[in-house]
Design brief:
8 helices; Fumarate Reductase Iron-sulfur Protein, Chain B, domain 2; elongated; 7 strands; 2 domains; alpha+beta; 5-stranded mixed beta sheet; Ubiquitin-like (UB roll); two-stranded antiparallel sheet
């Protein structure tokens, strides 16, 4: 395939940035989207030009670092996948593809398509952990009965990879699906009850401090989430927050 790429180029955080056009040819439909960008960068380097900076790591849909905004959609025109799992067969000969970084006040652009998502790390550090000491004191998994329904829901919430697609797809740049998932994976299990009240209060407080917006209730985050995390985690977080608030 022969394609036209319109890519956001920004030298650094203080640079204004702009869209730059690139023509790329002989793109195999079997390439992943990131492989296609690798080919482009190889061509740019051979010409003595600056390659396009973009985040990537595992390329297996697990780490969440490959977050790109492609043709107006987080992770591109497919569902339940990350950018590294998007293949060029989703596009057609002669297509023009717009590639941008995730846009949010709390995700400032570092360079080109790379954004700073350390806000998620700070939210996680505010309460996304348990203090149960398991070092040398492990218990058999069956010693604490947990319903399969609760275990399944906790596991579903724990699949969040922190990519930020929920933020990028929300009109208010809300991080409530991310925070709801992190709260839910602990709220559903007995190991998470010790810090339950402090956890939700601290994580929500940090979320607000980072500059994320409030939930729009439109459900765009669930649609774009590569792991299909349900809006139910936001409802659970709200319930946990209300309970913690009433307990003071």
């Amino acid at each position: 395939m022969n394609l036209t790429l319109k890519i956001w180029r920004q030298k650094n955080a203080s640079d204004k940035g702009k869209m730059v056009d690139y023509a790329i040819s002989d793109v195999s439909p079997d390439m992943s989207f990131l492989e296609m960008l690798d080919v482009l960068n190889t061509e740019l380097i051979s010409k003595g030009e600056e390659p396009v900076a973009f985040d990537h790591d595992c390329r297996e849909g697990i780490c969440g670092t490959c977050s790109l905004y492609i043709n107006g959609e987080a992770h591109g025109p497919d569902r339940a996948i990350t950018t590294c799992q998007l293949h060029m067969r989703k596009f057609k000969e002669g297509d023009t593809i717009y590639i941008e970084p995730f846009r949010a006040k709390a995700f400032p652009v570092i360079k080109d398509l790379v954004v700073d998502r350390s806000a998620f790390d700070r939210i996680q550090h505010a309460g996304g952990f348990i203090s149960v000491n398991t070092s040398g004191n492990t218990q058999d998994a069956n010693s604490i009965p947990i319903s399969k329904h609760a275990a399944d829901e906790a596991m579903d919430a724990a699949t969040c990879i922190g990519c930020g697609a929920c933020v990028a797809s929300c009109k208010n740049s809300s991080a409530m699906l991310f925070v709801g998932a992190k709260v839910s994976q602990f709220a559903l299990l007995p190991q998470g009850q010790v810090e339950a009240n402090d956890r939700v209060m601290n994580m929500v407080k940090q979320m607000d401090a980072e500059g994320f917006g409030n939930c729009t209730n439109t459900g765009a985050c669930e649609v774009e989430c590569p792991k299909g995390i349900s809006l139910e985690v936001i409802a659970r977080m709200n319930r946990e927050y209300l309970k913690a608030s009433l307990k003071g």
